[in-house]
Amino acid sequence: MCRKFNITFACIFLTVFVYGQVDLKHFDYSKVDSFALNFPKKKYKSYTEIVGPLTDNLETEHEKFRAIFKWVTNNISYSYSNRSPDPEKALKKGKAVCSGYSNLLKAMCNSAGIECEVITGFSKTVHSDINKPLKKTDHAWNSVKLNGKWYLVDATWAWGYQNEKKKFIKEYDETYYLADNDFFNKKHYPKDKKWLLSENIVSKSNFKKSPIFHSNYLTTKIEIEKPKIGIIKMKTKDSLTIIFTTDVIIENVLIELNPKKPVTEMMLRTVDLGNGKIKYIATTKFDKPINTSMPIFINNRHTLTYKLIVK
Predict the structure, then answer these.
(1) CA nearest 267: which of 288, 247, 281?
(2) How far apart are CA 94 and CA 129, in angstroms?
(3) For residue 284, is it within any domain?
(4) Taking the model in full, what pTM does it have?
(5) Contact predicate 269/194, CB 8 Å
(6) Nearest to residue 232, comparing CAs of 303, 311, 115?
(7) How far apart (Å, rounded) are the C-alpha atoms in residues 146 and 201?
(8) How far is CA 277 from the centre of its chain?
(9) In angstroms, how far is the first alpha carbon of the chain from the final one?
(10) What is the DSSP letter of 201?
(11) Is the domain of 158 the same as that of 195?
(12) I want to staple 217 with a disulfide (CB 3.0 to 4.6 A). Which of 37, 54, 213, 297 is the partner?
């Protein structure tokens, strides 16, 4: 940016004024991404051999971090065949679990002069995680400092996801890059609460009991009123009611009780709350006992997962 100006003072002033206002989450990273994704693939002896050529031509700290993040999520696959936290092993094998991802990201960032920390804690991804005991930490992610501000990132989950059958699916998810803290904390609970990085402090108990939130939760901007507990217990004579508010137009709410069978569309009614906010009330009934995972699709996209027990 500064090369366009001949007056040094003007360049410095403009850089300070504009740089402080950059929205790092929605910055146009297309050129950085293209470079990182097409970065020559060969056997590197150390991550330090990658960091220099990967970041040296990038001017800003956040672009350097983006290049590192995209390189890691594109080149390291999730696999139990390498459970080592050693970043060099993650690099050499091209495979890792969360500790390998997070330690490699930290090592590469530190090599580029970027502050980055590894965060350990608890995670929730599938319905069996709802209300599970939180005794031993089961996940690792990172916090990176850019422009003097700490951001939460998860390179493991940005790489892809593990489905209900425990199969790993590579599918890049931008949600976990410089994440929305409140959403991130619905799926991550750090051992050290300072890494929640939010004024909305959620208790460990509420984290444990809540449903599973998926990336579409951010798109729909819903606020759940009912049920807030992730395990739903009811009788066949009762109606299942899901209530939430949003300023996004919701066309349908679907539930999936069996991946091999058609989804069920819930009956939907609305209440206009004013100021663009609408309360949606979705209801349905069950005619037989059920004990299963219950994915909720809003506007045809997976948004929530509950555990449903109907007696």
Answers:
(1) 281
(2) 28
(3) yes
(4) 0.89
(5) no
(6) 311
(7) 23
(8) 26
(9) 65
(10) P
(11) yes
(12) 213
